[in-house]
Structures are given as C-alpha cells and as structure tokens.
Amino acid sequence: MILRKIFSSLLYLVLISMVSFLLSAAIPGDAAEMITNIGRADPAPMEMVEKVRAAYALDQPVLVQYVKWMQRLILDNNLGTSFRTANPVSREIRYCFPATLELAGWTFLVTMLVAVPLGIYAALTHSRVIGFLIQMIIVIGYALPVFLVGNVLLWIFAVKLPWLPAIGRGDWHNAVLPVLTLSVHMIGWSSQIVRSSVKEQMNKTYVLVAKAKGLSNWQIIRSYILRPALIPILTSFLMMFGRLISGSFIVEYIFAWNGIGRLLIDSVMARDIPMIQGIILYIAVIFILINFLIDLLYIRLDPQISEQLLGSAA
Questions:
Q1: Which of 21, 138, 214, 242 is the most exposed place for a label (fewest CB within 10 A)?
Q2: pLDDT at 167 over 70
Q3: Around Cβ 303, how many Cβ atoms within 10 Å?
Q4: How many whole angstroms separate alpha carbon 62 and alpha carbon 22?
Q5: Which residues are registered as beta bridge partners of 88?
Q6: For the packed helices 2-25 and 62-76, what is the interaxial angle rounded to 10 degrees?
C-alpha cells in the first residue's frame, strides 16, 4: 500500500510539473525580452535578446525545455535559475518560505482557538437565536472575499486608525492584519466543518443513550463525540494548513508580505518560468506530504480503516 502510494505521488508530481510547464510557457509575452530589458530604460537590441534566448534555451521547443529541466532536477537536484533575479530558484524559495510559514502558523493557531469552540458550541446550543447568530457569523466569515477583508482591515487599522503597520514583515505588529484577514475566512470555513462533524455524531444512537443516562455535554463530547468527529476535522484542518503554507497569494500581495505567494505572483508577471515551476512543484510536494499525514492519522484514529488497508495489502 505504501509503495503504491509513493508511486502514485511521484506520477502526480510528474504530471503536475508537465502541465504547469506548458501553462507557464503559454503565458503571453517574450521571456527573453523581459529578461534582457530588466533595469533598462530603452528596449534592448534584438541581438542581445537573441543571445539571452539561446543562453536560456528559450529558442528550443517547449517539450525539449521541459526534458532538460527534468534532467537537471533529477540528476543535479537543481530547479534552475530565476530569469528575473539570476539567483537559484531553490535559494529564492528557501528565502521566502519562513515568511509564509510564519503567516500560516499564526493563522492556523488563531483559527484553531476560535473555530473549534465556536463550532462545538454552535452544534450543542439549544437556543435558536444564539445558534442563528453563530451560523450567520460563520457564513459571513466564509463568504467574504479575502481581498475585501484585507483592504477593509488595512483601511481601518492602518489608514484611519494608524495603530498597525500597513505593509511589510517585521515584528508581530506587521503580522496582525494579514493573520486577521486570513483567519476571518478560515474561521468561518473551519467552524462549519466542526459544527457539521459534531452535529453528525450527536445523532448517533450511543450518544442519544448517553444523553438519556444524564451525562453532561462535556462528558458526552469527551467520551463519545470527540474521537469519531476528529477524522473529518483533522482532515479539513490539515488541508487548510496546506493551503496556508503553500502560499496565501492575495494576502501576501496586499500586505507586501515576502512569502511564497507573492513570489509566485511576481514570477508570473515577469514570466519567470523556472521560478514558477519550482514554486508549483514545492506546493505539490507539500500537499502530497499532507495527504500522507492524513492517511496515517486515519489509520491511527479509525481501526476499521487500518484493518481494511491491511486486508487489501494481504
């Protein structure tokens, strides 16, 4: 089972890299001209453009470029050199990764601390008014576009009330607005997952029997609901963390946060094919690793899944 999973993951990586390379090559504009004209006031001579085109193998068919890129990656563990900065792609990604990891980590923590109790309370409350208000907060938080939330928070807390920095990455003050922007959306989505999972378990027969015995809500949650409800909750939270760590493009761009998302947007604008390829491959690896982790958690939390996997392997 593990070998089959590894093989399928490698196949996915190859397919993703191939499709992303073809899409990157289809971006409008001439990459050779963009590279040559970086830092120039006047357009570069065509002779210089052609030299750059030959140096970066941009004069060859796309399939040949892709094969050479794969050869460098497999044989030399080399993602190539950025057209835009002339630095190794892996170095640029390593430089931006801590910023994205910081933003993802704080957002994940805030979302967990708010969404889990909010979702549980929304599932357990018997008050129609409170339940309706919580549900409205969850739906609005999930439905609001991230760019709208970010710009509104930026206008209020950095322009009208200059309490927080508007852009850049420095101390914790700089992280407040981008973390809040991401958390508003993530809390709405995650709270709905928690609420639905807990609600589903509350309708199970053994939970109804526990209620009939007079157990408190906390005892029922701890003993009967939490463990079976953890599987969809952990799955959704891990996928959310994958989305965050793979780059929150809009938020990083709004707040000039030098993470993976902003690096990808700048690379697309500059038609920096090696950098685009490297970032997409990095994102794909992250999601594949998260899927592995989810499978392991499924096996750990649900013995029936473990027995099925062992039975299929036998």
A1: 214
A2: yes
A3: 9
A4: 7
A5: 81
A6: 140
Q: How does residue 19 score in pLDDT terms, banded at 50, 70 and 90? A: confident
Q: How far is residue 114's CA from residue 119's CA, in Å, rounded to a whole number?
A: 8
State residue 303's pLDDT score: 58
Distance between CA atoms of 265 and 154, rounded to whole angstroms? Answer: 20
Of 26, 33, 63, 65, residue with least CA distance to 47? 33
Of 97, 80, 95, 88, the C-alpha closest to 24 is 80
Domain boundaries, the chain: 98-313
State both tokens at 243.
């989305």
Token code pair at residue 178: 């981008």
Q: Residue 294 pLDDT > 70, yes or no?
A: yes
Q: CATH homologous superfamily for 98-313?
A: MetI-like (1.10.3720.10)
Q: DSSP of the chain, one letter per residue?
A: -HHHHHHHHHHHHHHHHHHHHHHHHTSSS-HHHHHHTTT-SSPPPHHHHHHHHHHTTTTS-HHHHHHHHHHHHHHH----B-TTT-SBHHHHHHHHHHHHHHHHHHHHHHHHHHHHHHHHHHHH---HHHHHHHHHHHHHHHHS-HHHHHHHHHIIIIIISTTS-SSS--SHHHHHHHHHHHHHHHHHHHHHHHHHHHHHHHTSHHHHHHHHTT--HHHHIIIIIHHHHHHHHHHHHHHHHHHHHT--HHHHHHTT--SHHHHHHHHHHTT-HHHHHHHHHHHHHHHHHHHHHHHHHHHHH-HHHHHHHHHHH-
d(CA 193, CA 313): 32
The per-residue pLDDT for 247 is 60
Find the mean pLDDT for residues 198-206. Answer: 78
Q: How far is residue 230's CA from residue 138's CA, in Å, rounded to a whole number?
A: 20
